[in-house]
Amino acid sequence: MRPGSIAAPGVLRTVIPPVLLGLVAILLWQGAVTYFAIKPFILPGPFQIGEQFSANLQNVANGMLVTGRNALIGLLIGSLLGILAAIVASVLRVADEMAAPIIAAIAVVPIVALAPVLYTMFGAGAETARQIVAGLAVFVPVYFNTLKGLRQVSPVHRDLMRSYAASSRQATRTVTLPTALPYVFTGLRIASSLAVISALIAEYFGGPVGGLGKSITSSASSSNYGLAWAYVLGSILLGLLFYSAALGLEKLVGRRIPGS
Amino acid sequence: MSRTQPTDPAAIAVPAARPAPSAGALAVEATAVSRIFPVRKGASVTALDNVSLSVAPGEFVSLIGPSGCGKSTLLRLIADLDAPTSGNITVFGKPARQARIDQDYGIAFQQAGLLPWRTVAGNIELPLELHGTGKAARRARAAELIALVGLSDFADNYPDQLSGGMQQRVAIARSLAESPSLLLMDEPFGALDEMTRERMQNELVRICGETSAAVVFVTHSIPEAVFLSDRVVVLEPRPGRIRDVLTVSLGDPAGRGENLREDEGFFHAVSQVRELLHGPGVAGARGVETR
User: Fold this and answer.
1) Do A164 and B79 touch (CB under 8 A)?
2) Strand order in the sheet with B214-219
3) Helix, strand, or coil (residue B74)
4) Which of A177, B173, B207, B223 is the most exposed place for a label (fewest CB within 10 A)?
5) pLDDT grade, residue A9 (50/70/90)?
6) How far apart are CA B125 and CA B138, in angstroms?
7) Domain-by-domain residue ranges, chain A?
8) How crowded is residue B103: how many other Cβ atoms within 10 Å of its Cβ?
9) B185-223 CB burial, b ≥16 within 10 A, e <16
10) How far away is chain A from the Cα of B233, in angstroms, using its nearest Cα?
């Protein structure tokens, strides 16, 4: 009765069509680049990108490591702060009302725009600015989703806890937190790709070399377009990695919550 | 309830029902209880107006009436999930609040209200866990209750794998976890289909016979109230008042079964309750002798 044991033919049927479509798209792309003799600085062919990708695998992997590390640190710190702030806001109505304008401000500021300011604050040789940018970007969705989750306790569960004369600590542990958990993980899923994007874009505004963002700009400015696209491919893979990890966690946790 | 876990099976055997905290006290005694909900400035709704009711230990009392008659409100007041605007409620001789803190009652709602992330056994163990019962004692008690409600094959299933009737049986088992001498039930079968409902009623009669707990049962089904109860309290709406109390004498719980539903006395009681419910509109209904 448990989900998770999907029959093999089902997997084939869900996996094969998108893979086929992808292959057809790559062939069409390569065909168009070759047939119309498109210049590589406009659009390199996928074979050329693949060549560059495998030739520079070590460099791309290093870039993914640097950017991924920044994104991960930002994701962890931003989520932790977001969850803690949401718990405080859900317990203290005053804190929620006081924080609302600040949170709204953080939500509307294009956070990567802070990168240049942060580089001057923390020094252009440190990764700190990028981690802070990623952390801020993560904070907002995690905070909002967690706060929403903490307010989802159903009236019947609240009555039940009261009838058991449960302490507020017991009620939080047995009902409020488990109810909120799937919402927290939805926030984390949204935040996971934001963390990668923010950490990467922040590299465009300065700081040390080595990350994916810096590598994309430097390859492009030295007319090595195939390599630039190879780094873009690396960024896509990094983003997918973060997203699937968060999605996997969310599925694992949301299994037993109806409607998720 | 100590942390040391009993190894002697007799030590974890079910007590039929905990003895009423102070011997001789009524299970529930409500005296001139009113509950007025403020709606907006100046306006208010009188959910209960000067209601008095007593329930003896071991007695099964149903509250029946149309929507808005305050039957659920009265139950919530007894459970101390809400406080009366005026009047007084005691449960086993103590204030309702104290009785709630002392866990003198078990409660079941119209929604099963199970925690979806806990198994059937985990849900039944919940109240025991909150009140510090040891793990082994908890397990044993949950297993007994699961057997009592006939769900032994489903102990490790999650609520979303069960039908509505099965979920409600788990909720009833949970309400019995601490062998309360008072059970409060707010339309627990309200969301079930008729066939499941009658089966659940038979089971409840059997369970009540085995535990000898007093029950306050809110319903809006006339046959359900008559089938289950020693007394049926008929309420009227706006403001919520007790219209009349009908004593149903259909024999002791152990003897009640499917046949009772075909019984002459059963039909008679059903039509009496119906006449009471339709009240002043029906000429002469007021004059029906009910006691």
Assistant:
1) no
2) B105-108, B182-186, B214-219, B60-64, B231-236, B241-247
3) helix
4) A177
5) low
6) 6
7) 57-254
8) 17
9) bbbbbbebeeebbbbbbbbbbebbeebebbbbbbbbbbb
10) 24
Rounded Cα–Cα distance for residues A243 and A239 (Å): 6
Give the closest of B107, B126, B160 to A258, CB-based: B160
d(CA B170, CA B149) in angstroms, rounded, equals 7
Judge contact between B79 and B27, C-beta under 8 A: no
How many residues belong to chain B? Answer: 291
Instruction: Give the A window 130-159 contacts with B, CB below 8 Å.
Output: 154, 156-157, 159
The pLDDT assigned to B279 comes to: 62
pLDDT tens for B193-226 read: 787 788 788 878 887 777 788 889 998 888 888 8
Q: Which of residues 170-209 of B touch A (CB under 8 A)?
A: none
Question: What H or E segment, with its residue span, contains residue A97?
Answer: helix A93-108
Residue tagged 């292959």 (tokens)? A23
Residue given tokens 């990467």 in the structure block: A200
| pLDDT tens digits, one per residue of B24-78 | 678 788 787 888 888 877 788 888 888 888 888 888 888 888 887 888 888 888 8
Would you call B109 an interface residue with chain A, using a CB distance cutoff of 8 Å? yes
pLDDT tens per residue across span B166-198:
888 889 888 888 888 888 998 888 877 787 788
Residues B249/B258, Cβ–Cβ less than 8 Å: no
Non-local (6+) Cβ contacts of B4 within 8 A are: B134
What does chain A come to in residues? 260
Residue spans of the domains in chain B: they are 26-104+182-280, 114-179
Superfamily of domain A57-254 in the CATH hierarchy: MetI-like (1.10.3720.10)
- What letter does residue B92 receive in the DSSP assignment? T
